[in-house]
Write a structure and sequence with these properties.
The chain is an alpha/beta fold. It contains eleven helices and eight strands. Helices cover 43% and strands 15% of the residues. Strands 1-2-3-4-5-6-7-8 form an eight-stranded parallel beta barrel, surrounded by six helices. Bound molecules: 2-phosphoglycolic acid.
């Protein structure tokens, strides 16, 4: 029996992190747009390094695949050497921006206040933020998973209007599963996804069933299907496997199968 909620379309997003060259990106994008040209079920996007976004625009514009960035400035415009404004990403045709990825939180000191400022910039530019949340291994082991997720989500839920919240996508990415080859079990993922939707419902009762919640953390071709069949898992945020053209297409196909059955 299909347990998927039909008010939500599945979404699979590649997070390339700091990988790729003009040549490798060209090869990958040409493959994806060819292989995925008949896909009408799954929304697909790639979050590329800033410098590869013009290439995404060039190669993906007439495809059904969308593109986005992995980070953005918390400022609108001005003397911020080295920063990229959300309006610049909109100019390049981006649809999504990752915000609050655990690598940015852990390695670049991004706190909830900065995450909120970035989300506001992304929304102001008419783009969709993908808000990443998740617990570390130490937090899971001392049973603090829900407390961590609640803190990260409440910060955002309390700072945005209903109209703004309606534009968000949430990605649950347990930090211990990112790039480690350890994936949350489908049951572990489902439990946290249901909790995220529950928290959303408390603030946004009418929106909670429409909220897209992605799972991220070592999603691969061989574990995607089981994760995606969970009722509250609406797709994936895919790191390492998004750099492998066959794996990424297989993950998109797994989402399609999970929705069609
Ligand atoms: P991974 O990365 O799939 O390589 O674990 C996921 C992410 O960091 O978004």
């Amino acid at each position: 029996m299909n347990m998927k909620n039909t008010s939500r379309r599945p979404l699979v997003v590649g997070n390339w992190k700091m990988h790729g060259s003009l040549e490798s990106v060209t090869t990958l994008l040409n493959f994806l747009r060819h292989e995925l040209q008949n896909n009408t079920v799954v929304d697909v996007a790639v979050c590329a390094p800033f410098v590869h976004l013009p290439l995404c625009r060039e190669l993906l514009t007439i495809s059904g695949i969308q593109w986005g960035a992995q980070n953005v400035s918390e400022h609108t415009v001005g003397a911020y050497t080295g920063e990229i404004a959300a309006s610049m990403l909109a100019d390049l045709g981006c649809r999504y921006v990752l915000v609050g990825h655990s690598e940015r939180r852990a390695l670049f000191g991004e706190m909830d206040a900065m995450v909120i400022a970035k989300i506001k910039q992304v929304l102001e530019a008419g783009l969709k933020p993908i808000l990443c949340v998740g617990e570390t291994l130490a937090e899971r082991e001392c049973d603090a998973t829900e407390a961590v997720i609640a803190r990260q989500l409440h910060a955002v839920l309390g700072a945005l209007t209903s109209e703004q919240l309606a534009e968000l996508v949430v990605a649950y990415e347990p930090v211990w599963a990112i790039g480690t080859g350890k994936t949350a079990s489908p049951e572990q993922a489902q439990a946290v996804h249901a909790y995220i939707r529950q928290l959303w419902k408390e603030k946004q009762p009418e929106q909670a069933e429409r909220l897209i919640v992605l799972y991220g953390g070592s999603v691969k071709a061989d574990n995607a299907r089981l994760l995606f069949t969970q009722p509250d898992v609406d797709g994936g945020l895919v790191g390492g496997a998004a750099l492998d053209q066959n794996q990424f297409c297989a993950i998109v196909n797994a989402a399609e199968q999970a929705w069609n059955h």
